[in-house]
Design a protein that fits this description.
single chain, Serine Threonine Protein Phosphatase 5, Tetratricopeptide repeat, transmembrane helix, 8 helices, AmiSUreI_transpt_sf, mainly alpha, about 210 residues
Length: about 210
């Protein structure tokens, strides 16, 4: 069941990412955040209630609420045009929690694939904190690009592997590939979108929304 929710996390990350890039009107992204936020409430609640006290199942399911509350917070901010500061500092809480979950996946669950994926999410939610909580608007478009890409590589791809029963066959290769991909792609994007943008250049497209992370 969790893999189904992960598939649609990919969709909302992609939508929110391209919204930050200015390709989608902010209010038009609100429904997807409500849909996926609601799904990510139902999924872990079901998993916890049917876990029969299994501590590992409960531990894994509890992490899903971090994303559920993020998406619902985003949806409310977009719907009511709220200031993004509170959401930004919630993203700091998620950042710290995601780092812990990454360590748990590496050490406790022996799952390097999701260990790396949780590191991706740590990085992404840290960017949300910087953009929303600390108002580092120069990182907005970069954050949008990272968010949109992560929708595919940290959610859609592993969800399909899980749904087809192939994740265990490829999780180690996935971990290595994602680690290399992050350094090359996100490093390259930073050089072109953040450092490169510091050079005088004409602005292209509308400014991204300050309300929305993933």
């Amino acid at each position: 069941m969790g893999s189904v929710g992960l598939l649609f996390v990919g969709a909302v990350l992609f939508i929110n990412g391209i919204m930050l890039l200015g390709w989608v009107e902010p209010k038009s992204a609100a429904p997807m955040n409500y849909f996926v936020g609601g799904l990510q409430i139902i999924t872990p609640t079901y998993l916890i209630f049917t876990a029969n006290g299994n501590a590992d199942t409960i531990l894994s399911a509890a992490g899903l609420y971090l994303f559920a509350f993020t998406y619902l917070y985003v949806a409310l901010n977009l719907t009511f045009d709220l200031d993004g500061t509170g959401l930004g500092y919630f993203c700091l809480f998620v950042t710290i929690s995601a780092l812990v979950y990454s360590g748990l996946n590496f050490v406790h669950f022996k799952d390097a694939g999701f260990g790396v994926i949780w590191l991706y999410w740590t990085f992404l939610w840290l960017l949300f904190f910087l953009v929303l909580g600390l108002k580092k608007e120069s990182l907005s478009r970069y954050t949008g690009a990272v968010c949109a890409i992560q929708g595919w590589v940290t959610a859609w791809l592993p969800a399909l592997l899980l749904l087809t029963g192939r994740y265990d066959d490829y999780k180690d290769q996935l971990a290595i590939t994602l680690a290399v991909f992050a350094v090359l792609v996100f490093g390259g994007l930073y050089a072109t979108m953040v450092r490169g943008a510091k050079q005088p250049a004409a602005s292209s497209g509308p400014p991204p929304s300050s309300h929305v992370p993933a």
